[in-house]
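User:
Can I borrow your eye for a moment on a structure tokenisation matter? Would you put together a sequence-and-structure record for a protein of your own picking? Please set it down just below, with no commentary around it:
AI:
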Amino acid sequence: MAKSLFAFAYATSQQVKVRWQVLTGSPSEFSLQARFFHSTSLCIILLATCYVPYDLFAGLFVAALSSFLMAVFFFYGFFRSRFHHRPHSNLLFGIVGLLVFSVNFFSNAGIEGSTDLIWPVYLLLLLTICPYRQYLAWIVVYLVVFAFIHLVAYLYPGLVSYPFRTGKNQLIDRITAFPIPVITISIIIGLFRKSYDREREAVRQRDVEKSRLLSILSHDLRAPFIQIQQYLEIIGDTELSATDRAAMEKILRRTNDQTLEMLTGLLYWSRSQLEGGAVHLAQLPLSETLANTMAIAESLTTQKSIVLESCIDPSIRVIGDADMLQLVVRNLLQNAVKFTAAGGSIRVEAAPDGRIVRLSVSDTGIGMSPEKLATLFSGNTASSHGTAGEKGVGLGLLLCREFVALQNGQIIVKSEPGKGSKFTVELPLGS
């Protein structure tokens, strides 16, 4: 029984967590300030909604009206920001807080009431959602207004209304007001910690990628140049026969092409890291965008005696970045050629499915083991030699994943050892 209750409670908490994340927005869609605003708005709406009937029951009519107005104001700001992507107004947010708390201070026992508990946390919330350049101004304004209304209450005590007596009612007022600052501070600290953890993991991942790049530069990229130098020395031998010379030149050309491919991959990857993934999305006719990429792939498959089939409807359009999409498909085709033996086949096809287009590159190559699939896009997978000894740097698929994600898509891989692989790129459907 206890295990069932625990499982039910855990499942419920996970559902609440997922729905809360949906309501507050994802980091890729909203800034940290916007997510702060969404989270605290939802909490204030819930608390204010609960306080309205309580305040009415306790006879605190001004407090009930203040709670209702705060709930309406925050719901309006939350709805505009979360669902219409319109930024919240820091000026309006700050002024409403000053007006509501000033009125509530005089109508709710002044310094003996609970309003002073909420002033600081509301200012803290305001500072988390406003630009840095406004920090000092808002701090000064709130301190001045806070001091001013307390001075007025001191000089003119008749302006302060006491809707309850000290003792039990005052205790209830303090206890019911205390959750507002506690919950708000908890949300702010929680979001700050999540943001810090996310940034720390991003820095760690960048360090891993830099180490990977240095390793590639010191080994994988240096080795081909050494081979080219050795081949040039052999070709320079005057006793080399014409047949052997032709064979060596063929090997030299292939090594040069592979080195150029590796260098191109490194440059694209380095640029993506330096520029932070600049993407230019547009409506793209898929078949026309990939025409040149398919032509290059056809020459590669012909050299290796591989059959290349293409089945892309000319009417299909996607929303993507032309350069990034071409690089992704070029990498997938090069990998397919690399790991498919002579006599095999590669098929490229695309089909719309609802609001997305599925573009797939499948081959009859050597396939991959489950262990290889698990680390395929990690950037930590060592490059493997192809069926004809082709070599890469292991960054191609890492680039593909990053570039597809920047185009609001994803890559799905299916593969079995000895049965080939199928890479499916899902992109938003164009109009």
The beta strands are 282-285, 307-311, 317-320, 345-353, 356-363, 410-416, 420-428. The chain has 15 helices and seven strands. The mean pLDDT is 80.
